[in-house]
Design a protein that fits this description.
By secondary structure, the chain is an alpha/beta fold. Helices cover 26% and strands 28% of the residues.
């Protein structure tokens, strides 16, 4: 089966480009499951019910989150009601929603797990210990294939997670840094690994933000309100061909459009 993982969708620009490109992409590659990181799909940042609905309607089967998922309180009820709208699993239990789901495709079941990194980010429960528990949860629910969106800042932490869980999950990919990395690989234990999926949003931007705002903040060290850039867009992702019998990836291919 073919599984498509799409990098962080940023604002209105990213949502509109996803709507234009994803249906054709899924058809061309015969995609049976699509996972999209949507934690910044609302204009500005965070995720709103309207942006989540847009991402689902564009072809996402599961939306994963990150450190901005809870920024917009309007999404809280949706996190509780929609099993396929995830927030990181290592957030406190009191937080709305959950960090995993299992998608039943009839011929197989796919577990999707979402986690936050802790290096250079807020203090959270250990992603290593949390992933151990989440893997057991999705297996008990029948998952034969397990995919992990690790939303983290540090390449070293992402790499460590990949190697730690090699052979225990089907694929582990990073999100958050909005720049697609060129290290798609299948690790010795057969787990597919990618440090970062990249971004779906404005191409000439600083991680989706208007360049002049980001540059001013970095040069002058003054507070700045971020606004998403406009203009030409890009869609980054990762296409996985998975052997449903073994639960491991046979081929992993980077996707970049725009």
């Amino acid at each position: 089966m073919n599984i498509l993982c799409i990098g962080d969708v940023v604002g209105t620009n990213g949502c509109e480009f996803l709507r234009r490109k994803l249906p054709t992409l899924k058809k061309e590659h015969k995609v049976e499951l699509c996972i999209v990181n949507g934690e910044n799909s609302a204009e500005g940042n965070g995720i709103l019910p309207s942006s989540a609905e847009h991402v689902f309607a564009s072809g996402a089967d599961v939306i994963t989150g990150g450190n901005h998922t809870l920024r917009r309180r309007e999404i809280y009820p949706e996190l509780e009601e929609n099993d396929r709208l995830l927030r990181p699993a290592n957030l406190p239990d009191s937080v709305p929603g959950k960090g995993y789901c299992v998608v039943d495709l009839g011929y197989t079941s796919v577990g999707v797990i979402n986690l936050l990194g802790t290096v250079y980010m807020e203090s959270m429960a250990s992603p290593f210990e949390t992933l151990d528990r989440q893997i057991e949860k999705v297996k008990l629910l029948g998952a034969k294939i397990i995919l992990v969106d690790f939303h983290a800042e540090a390449t070293s932490e992402k790499r460590a997670m990949g190697l730690c869980f090699d052979s225990k999950v089907t694929a582990l990919f990073g999100t958050h840094t909005h720049v697609q990395t060129n290290d798609s690989q299948i690790l010795p234990g057969r787990t597919a690994y990618l440090t970062d999926l990249g971004m779906t949003g404005p191409k000439q931007s600083v991680l989706g933000v208007k360049p002049e705002i980001a540059i001013m903040k970095m040069r002058d060290k003054l507070p700045a309100r971020f606004y998403n850039a406009a203009g030409e867009s890009i869609l980054n992702g990762w296409l996985l061909n998975v052997d449903t019998a073994s639960g491991f990836v046979t081929k992993a291919e980077l996707i970049s459009i725009g």
